[in-house]
Specification:
78% helix, Serine Threonine Protein Phosphatase 5, Tetratricopeptide repeat, disordered N terminus
């Protein structure tokens, strides 16, 4: 029971940090709705996250990708970017765990190798 509560607490903290970063930047509820609506379309959500990361808003990009994955849990592109951005915020262990769950044939060997390199890990054979 304690382990489950610790996991719930950790999850709440992550959401508070990531969700808070997004909500703090939004001026009103219409902007929050717009941020959520972006994630409804898989490709639009990935593009928005990429733009957010390009301007240095990695936590915002992670939050966007988490919303994309909530709607499209099998999105290989969102999962790959999410793993890389975890590494970018110094969660290398989390990023590498996420990368280990991806398959070369679905993501592409070159893209996966580049992601492992960016995270400082070796791609498994």
């Amino acid at each position: 029971m304690k382990k489950k509560n610790a996991m719930l607490t950790a999850g709440a903290c992550v959401w508070a940090v990531l969700g808070g970063a997004i909500i703090a930047q939004a001026q009103d509820f219409s902007e929050i709705d717009a941020l959520s609506d972006v994630a409804l379309d898989e490709q639009t959500g990935i593009e928005a996250a990429t733009a957010q990361a390009a301007r240095g808003d990695i936590l915002e990009a992670l939050a966007t990708l988490e919303r994309v994955l909530a709607v499209h849990p099998k999105s290989q592109g969102a999962r790959l970017l999410h793993a890389v951005y975890l590494c970018d915020v110094d969660d290398k262990q989390g990023g590498l765990v996420a990368l280990n769950q991806l398959k070369k044939k679905e993501v592409g060997e070159e893209a996966l190798a580049a992601a492992y390199a960016r995270c400082g890990g070796e791609m498994p054979e």
